[in-house]
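## retry 2 of 3
previous attempt timed out at serialization; input unchanged, resubmitting
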Amino acid sequence: MSDDWNDYADGWDGNSDVRTYAARAFAALDAYAGITGGGWQDKRVLDFGCGTGLLSEKLAPHVQDVAAVDTSDRMIAVLQEKALPNVRALHLDILDSSGQGAGEGLSGFDLICASSVCGFLPDYKSAVAALAGRLNSGGLFVQWDWLAPEQGGSGLTEQQVRDALRDAGFESIRVEHAFTMDAGGQAMPVLMGSGVRAAE
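## retry succeeded, writing output
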């Protein structure tokens, strides 16, 4: 598997597993936060590591706007071609703290989503803490990631997710199995971790 997400951009939306993952993630989010229930029209959302925006597409009709960010310029190009009316597709690394102005003004969010992103980050804990700072007081952070197999491998454990959310200062932390994907006859569980930014 390539380390460059640009290599997957062109065929990403045509992959039925990718579309199923996004649909199940959104269904889990809706069950938890009531996104489609009508109370989110004035809310701002950050889709962190948005890829081609499959989750952003599902969120957009129910919220005020979505800032969809990804470090893959080709993934962002695919999203930009969709011309979704209230989705800003942004090619940048908002975790880059080198002073280049990355993500300037990208704060004050009511919801930050990270779908199958956190497990690939070099410093997961620091990333969650940085994202927490971009939420409004009472804002919600939700992530979905592969559950790490017991014998090792990629993904995150429930304890890793719980620790990262706690260390970032979140309250009302929940970590649960959200759904399972089938990969060549092998069941691959997906964790959903969530927390609320404490009121200041």
